Amino acid sequence: MKKVVYFAVLVVVLLSACSSESDSRIKVPVTQQNTITFLCNGFTKRTENMAKTVVTRASETTSLTADGIGMTDLWLFDYVGGELKQTIHQVATDDDFGKPSVKLDYGQHIIRIVASRGNHPTLSSDIITWEKASDTFAKEVNVSVASGMETIQRITLERVATRLNVKITDVVPPSAATLDLELATWYKSLSVPSLFAVNDNATHYSINIKKFVGTKDASLAVYSLSPSAESWSTNVTLVAKDEDGKVLSQIVVPSVQMKMNRTTVLSGELFGKSKQMTFTLNTQWNEDYAQNF
């Protein structure tokens, strides 16, 4: 009889333990998520007074082309409470390039998106650095993730780059082979939290100008990122050399003004008697721009 009682007690204990374990599993909270697609369907262009905004394209398809040239990389950064939770990097050959999808927990998120065609980007912590900067766009959006929300977010990116357009107004002589550009202050790194440039550095570009020999109005362009929405300045040194590296001409232009989403035109004679160049900060981004190298 005692054995039967002991067995009954054991069964009750086991059933109670199983029930307790089952209850504990039920009480474990499940994180609720939504998969959100961010459709990058255009770039914003602004006039100087910022009163008018024109979008290059707003459609249900992605559009990551500016001045007829496509972007090569796109990043999506997901922040919650100031902390970076996840990062997505896409390249132009990806099937979903320009429309990244990401699983987001319910709640408030800050999403920052960066698209660029700069050369050889690297991401370290929350700073993107390019070997050579080029046209770059970015956008920050606040997203409240909840049940029943729209799962496609349409994003229009804004330019965070500036461009220096060098125009040589006199004839390039047959002996000219390269043009060295020395830029005292130049930006090739972008802070993701601020979406402004950081880590200014002196930068050197050596450009082959043989194709311009015998012609006037040779034109080329280089890009920098911008440390703020305000104008900033750099000293520009132009050095023309022959095949052997002999200096044919050299000009220094101090305090050249640059500004986000603007083209600065540096024009004048490089080989003529005057050997003078002046700069003009355009009031808007001119799409009829210089030839890139």
TrEMBL record:
Keywords: Signal. Residues 1-22 form the signal peptide. The keyword Signal applies. This is Fimbrillin-A associated anchor protein Mfa1 and Mfa2. It comes from Prevotella histicola JCM 15637 = DNF00424.
